[in-house]
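Troubleshooting: if your tokenizer reports a length mismatch, compare your output against this known-good record of 186 residues.
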Amino acid sequence: MNGNVVFSSEEPEFSTFSKNAYQNFEMNYPKFFKMDNLSKLAFMGAELLLGGVIDNSNENNIALNFSNKTSSLDTDLKHQNSITDKENYFPSPSIFVYTLPNICLGEISIKHQLKSENCFFIFEEFNSEFTVNYADILLNTNKADQVLSGWVDYLNEDYKAFLYLISKEESATIHNKQVIETLFNS
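Known-good structure output:
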């Protein structure tokens, strides 16, 4: 965290990587294994950042502001394949439910009992100016006390997650979009 690697795996396959990370960080959430890969990736990042922040004794006014390039295309393709295969026609509701990228936000919200603003945007590349401005709006209009924001993208075993948690106090220090771009691209 804070720019440091917190978990590394020699295993390039995401299913094994995510299982190993789940076990390493002792994430006690059995529904994790039913999620699609985009949701698993977002969930793992959120767990690492929210683990020490969430206080279940009061309301957590933490907004979620995520974006990516491929939306939920990885799961969309799996769902489409289950429809087009005439010999094994079996469109699964458990796959279909993940054909929207914002479902990963729902998984995080359910786990942490968040009842705050959340949004998922699709951009060609990480748009730090938009992301920072949107977080500032949420914080400055008291729609949130903190914002978990960033980029979570998954398609065909190619994945990247970059998340950060900011509050009103921290917003002024990272308002410069160049800081976020530098962190994202390093």
